[in-house]
Design brief:
Number of strands: 14
GO molecular function: DNA binding; DNA-binding transcription factor activity; pyridoxal phosphate binding
CATH architecture of the largest domain: 3-Layer(aba) Sandwich
Keywords: DNA-binding, Pyridoxal phosphate, Transcription, Transcription regulation
Order of helices and strands: HHHEEEHHHEHEHEHEHEHEEHHHEHEEEH
Helix content: 40-55%
Family: In the C-terminal section; belongs to the class-I pyridoxal-phosphate-dependent aminotransferase family.
Organism: Paraburkholderia bannensis
Number of helices: 16
CATH class of the largest domain: Alpha Beta
InterPro entries: Aminotransferase_I/II_large, HTH_trans_reg/aminotransferase, PyrdxlP-dep_Trfase, PyrdxlP-dep_Trfase_major, PyrdxlP-dep_Trfase_small, Tscrpt_reg_HTH_GntR, WH-like_DNA-bd_sf, WH_DNA-bd_sf
Number of domains: 3
Length: 444
């Protein structure tokens, strides 16, 4: 087939999809049927669909066929969009407290009146000043890292910066990192920046399939495991103490680094010990005050073995030099006077209230969620298309996230994630009612 004709067919199908003549969710002819209809070789028909898939216009699903994709906004669920005022954002969590603004005003006044302002105008040590790192270590001890100390604790500009710092400091391009089949999109981005190879591990109940991980370590040279043992995003699981010990045993046997993401761990009451407490010699613990206190602070923490600290500090220097001194001073003041712990407690209570509300409104809708989390995972049957539901909700001015940003394999499940921590309760209730209605329209 001449190249021009091949391109013409791709262009024609693409134009039909973009114009709506081929509607979202429509099943396209099989590769063989397309070849017969257009007088093509089968390999050329396959090439046509591959190019359309690369353009983001169709999706191929093993055993089901090729479908026209919904035109969701680029970066949906990964990038923070500036939605119009009439759009409800259930794709990102940025939970806040009613008195947050007044707390900041008070903190700024206190800093202006009694703080060492001159020092805040100078360069800071890359990982934070000694007394600030000691304050952060005490906060981490409150979260279960009882042996945390200033020497092993660094300030970063939020957990995302902590993950990226870890990816760049401790690994080489091409290194293999095992991750959950559904994982935090921000780590996918950090791995992309570090040119790491992510290999998905399937889930098995409340955690990764550790037999699959052990088998992978026998087949490949795996350098690390990225995991969220306490309040997994998006599935909300809390890994049991037994499974944590088994994961540590595998890591020690195969010389793996454990990257423990604890961004949402503060929400889970009575969770088992962090991996970093079980295996401090091989774990990087990543946490922040973004979800627990305020996203705008951009304050996070890394806790790691002493021998890794210089490389981590080197990447902090290369990326930000230091966490902004004013933000660090405010964060330390709130950790020292108990404000941070109080806000965490309030948000645990708030998250539970929101989950109860969601349970009442969503009713029989199948969902996966921790009772104190700020997100809900809604899986669908194979014949239900999540992108069609997400697009229908966008038409109702509600933004949600499909499974695509979370997926680390080509086998993307049909599901949506609702982030329920960012809007007031009245708006949340009304939005969840719409979500339930749209799901019902697409599943019955």
């Amino acid at each position: 087939m001449p190249e021009a004709r091949y391109k013409q067919l791709v262009d024609r199908l693409a134009a039909d999809i973009r114009a709506g003549r081929l509607r979202p969710g429509m099943r396209l002819p099989t590769h063989r049927d397309l070849a017969a209809r257009e007088g093509l070789a089968l390999v050329t028909a396959t090439r046509v669909y591959a190019e359309l898939q690369a353009m983001g216009l169709v999706s191929g699903e093993a055993g089901r066929g090729t479908f026209v994709k919904e035109a969701l906004p680029r970066g949906q669920g990964v990038d923070l969009h500036a939605w119009s005022a009439d759009t409800v954002d259930l794709s990102f969590n940025y939970p806040s407290s009613p008195d947050q603004s007044e707390l900041l005003r008070t903190a700024l006044r206190q800093l202006a009146a009694g703080g060492d302002l001159e020092s805040l105008l100078r360069y800071q040590p890359h990982g934070g000043r000694e007394h600030e790192r000691a304050t952060a270590a005490r906060q981490l001890a409150h979260r279960g890292l009882r042996e945390a100390c200033a020497e092993n604790t660094l300030f970063v500009s939020g957990a995302q910066h902590g993950l990226t710092t870890t990816a760049l400091a401790l690994f080489e391009p091409g290194d293999v990192v095992a991750v959950d089949a559904l994982t935090y999109p921000g780590f996918k981005l950090a791995a992309e920046v570090g040119r790491l190879e992510l290999v998905p591990i399937p889930a098995a109940g409340s955690g990764p399939d550790l037999d699959a991980l052990a088998a992978l370590c026998k087949r490949r040279k795996v350098r690390a495991v990225y995991t969220m043992p306490t309040l997994h995003n998006p599935l909300g699981w809390v890994m049991s103490a037994t499974r944590r010990r088994e994961l540590v045993a595998i890591a020690r046997r195969h010389g793996l680094i454990l990257i423990e993401d604890a961004a949402y761990a503060f929400l889970a009451d009575d969770a088992p010990q962090p991996l970093s407490a079980l295996a401090p010699e091989l774990t990087v613990y990543v946490s922040s005050l973004s979800k627990s206190v305020a996203t705008g602070l951009r304050i996070g923490f890394l806790h790691a073995p002493a021998e890794w600290i210089p490389e981590l500090e080197r990447v902090i220097r290369a990326t930000t030099w230091n966490t902004p001194a004013t933000m660090t001073a405010i964060a330390c003041a709130w950790m020292e006077d108990g404000t941070a712990n109080r806000l965490e407690k309030e948000k645990r209570h708030d998250a539970k209230n929101r989950q109860r509300l969601a349970g009442d409104v969503l009713g029989s809708v199948k969902r996966v969620a921790h009772p104190a989390s700020y997100f809900i995972w809604i899986p669908f049957e194979q014949e239900v298309r999540a992108d069609a539901i997400a697009m229908a909700l966008m038409r109702e001015r509600i933004s949600v996230t499909t499974a695509q940003p979370f997926s680390t394999s080509s086998n993307v499940p049909h599901a949506i994630r609702l982030a329920i921590g960012s809007v007031d309760l009245v708006t949340l209730k009304r939005s969840l009612e719409t979500v339930a209605s749209v799901i019902a329209e697409h599943t019955y």
